[in-house]
Amino acid sequence: MSSASKIPAEEVAGRLTKFREFIKRRGLKSTRQRDEIARQFFESSGHRSADQIYRDVKRETPGIGFSTVYRTMRLLCEAGLVQERHFRDAEALYENVSGHHDHFICTSCGKIIEFEDEVIEQRQQQVADRFGFELKSHRMELYGLCADCR
């Protein structure tokens, strides 16, 4: 369910700086554990559960606790750097905040495919305009079978 692609180092550094500034504004301490969780999360892409993040971080930081990972992910969400997603009734998955995109979710294997389609975006705006609705945001999740499961 998670993508193995790496995020550029300068983008990771910028996101870490934003997180540290957020922590400081909140009057919280910047800790090595929070930094490690954030760094590892920012370096990867895809959708990961708190448990997956915990297992990944624990490999490099054995003394870390699950609650520290969970609280840090909540802070990253509050900082606007990470988004918590709930696909169907599954556990929360976290993804780095990036440009707008939509999701295909395989109902068999759970694979998540992100996509962007300007025609769909334009059509949604046209429908909103027709109903006199001012869009602020939206989320589109399409469920079905991926190519591997069909």
Compact description:
This protein has 150 residues and is an alpha+beta fold. It has helices at residues 9-25, 32-43, 50-60, 66-78, 118-130; strands at 2-6, 44-46, 48-49, 82-85, 93-96, 102-106, 112-115, 141-144.
Oligomerization category of the chains in this entry: single chain
How many strand segments? 8
Structural class: alpha+beta
How many structural domains does the protein architecture include?
2
Summed over residues and divided by their number, the pLDDT gives a mean of: 87
N-to-C span: 17 Å
User: β content, as a range?
Assistant: 15-25%
Provide the helix percentage: 40-55%
Which stretches are low in confidence, meaning pLDDT under 50 for 5 or more residues running?
A: none
The sequence of SSEs as H and E is EHHEEHHEEEEHE
CATH topology (fold) name of the largest domain: Arc Repressor Mutant, subunit A
**Radius of gyration (Å):** 17 Å
CATH level 1 name of the largest domain: Mainly Alpha
- Describe the main β-sheet briefly: 3 strands, antiparallel
Instruction: Give the strand order of the largest sheet, numbering strands 1, 2, ... along the chain.
Output: 3-5-4
CATH architecture of the largest domain: Orthogonal Bundle
Number of helices: 5
- Please state the overall shape, judged from the principal axes of the Cα atoms: globular
Looking at CATH, the homologous superfamily of the largest domain is Winged helix-like DNA-binding domain superfamily/Winged helix DNA-binding domain
